[in-house]
Amino acid sequence: MYTTDQEIALTEIVRDGDLVLVPRGFHGPAAAAPEHHMYYLNVMAGPAEQRVWRFCDDPDHAWIRSRLDEYPPDPRLPLTRAY
User: Fold this and answer.
1) Where exactly are the structural domains of the chain?
2) How far apart (Å, rounded) are the C-alpha atoms in residues 8 and 25?
3) Element of type H or E holding 67
4) How far apart are CA 7 and CA 23, in angstroms?
């Protein structure tokens, strides 16, 4: 995770059962080793009565979002199914 002013510049190794709090700034990318699944969960927290996702892309990497429609969905997703 990092901030544009580099006040936070941290790389973490996260293993099964770990929790990482991101107080502000940007986070990612996240990656799993080949042949391993990864579950990435975002949770909203805070005192606001109404929860609203107010995310923004790092301006240096915002171009990636505009390219996502060029790729088909990953056929492995979703890894779970509704019963």
Assistant:
1) 1-74
2) 8
3) helix 63-67
4) 12
